Amino acid sequence: DVQLVESGGGSVQAGGSLRLSCVASGYTISTNCVAWFRQAPGKEREGVAAIRRYSGTTFYADSVKGPFTISQDNAKTTLYLQMNSLKPEDTAMYYCAADSCLVVASGGPYKYRGQGTQVTVS
After folding, report:
1. Rounded to 5 degrees, what are φ and ψ at 88?
2. pLDDT tens digit sequence for 56-79
């Protein structure tokens, strides 16, 4: 199975930056997309950004396009989410997820996900 472990969350003031990391192992051929999604208390899951593992093509939600950047290392074992110009509405638990690009494009639910890392913007 795919294992995903996030880190890098924390508390920042509005306008600040954070970089989330997700260490992955056990990828299969079917998990050709990886993504970040977030969920705030009482709100639905929201896809934030995704990347095709093999081509590196990236996708972003309109709400984060510009300030957020998704990337992966050359070995394709670590996924990153650089978040700049953070706003209070970005406060949520952020999760790393992996699945087929078809599922990722539909917004989930995802076959594999990590435990999440909390981001709080005040």
Report:
1. -55, -35
2. 999 999 999 999 999 998 888 899
What's the pLDDT tens digit per position in 11-66? Answer: 999 999 999 999 998 887 778 999 999 999 999 999 999 999 999 999 999 999 99
Dihedral sign computed on CA atoms, order 87, 88, 90, 95:
positive
Query: Which CA distances in Å does 52 have to 10, 57, 63, 64?
Result: 27, 5, 20, 18
Transcribe the chain into DSSP letters: --EEEEE--EEE-TT--EEEEEEEE---TT--EEEEEEE-TTS--EEEEEEETTT--EEE-TTTBTTEEEEE-TTS-EEEEEE-S--GGG-EEEEEEEE-HHHHHHT---SEE---EEEEE-
In whole angstroms, give the CA distance from residue 50 to residue 33.
7
8 Å CB contact between 35 and 110:
yes
